[in-house]
TrEMBL record:
The lineage of its organism: Bacteria, Pseudomonadati, Bacteroidota, Flavobacteriia, Flavobacteriales. Keywords: DNA damage. This is MGMT family protein. Residues 6-88 form the Methylated-DNA-[protein]-cysteine S-methyltransferase DNA binding domain. One of its GO terms (molecular function) is catalytic activity. One of its GO terms (biological process) is DNA repair.
Amino acid sequence: MPKSENFFEKVYEVAKKIPFGRVTSYGAIAKYLGAARSARMVGWAMNASHNNQEIPAHRVVNRKGLLTGKHHFDGTNLMQQLLESEGIEVVENQIQNFSAIFWDPFKELPNNL
DNA sequence: CCCCTGACACTGG
DNA sequence: TCCAGTGCCAGGG
């Protein structure tokens, strides 16, 4: 595997720290890792996160709160089900009250990593 | 090595 | 939180 896994691991580290019932965005994670313009890479990392059972990929959405990645889950609406099971309201692939449950790594996480 | 694609974000309209 | 266009980095063919 490529050395880029290092970047992937960082993404996983942050993703794993997302609290129950909260969500964050690809861009937020990317920015936290010092790669603000590499939000796509976060998505790519999530793609590979299927090997990691501990990664709550369903808690990561785009900046609008849209479940753009639901397509990559087993079921058509599995991602939504997972979020709803955490008390997150989802309508038409969009997280309701997104700004309220949004989890900002900069605010909630210490400056490690 | 070149070209396309991708679970995104930003800017201008 | 529209829409279209552009930039970004990395992987795969």
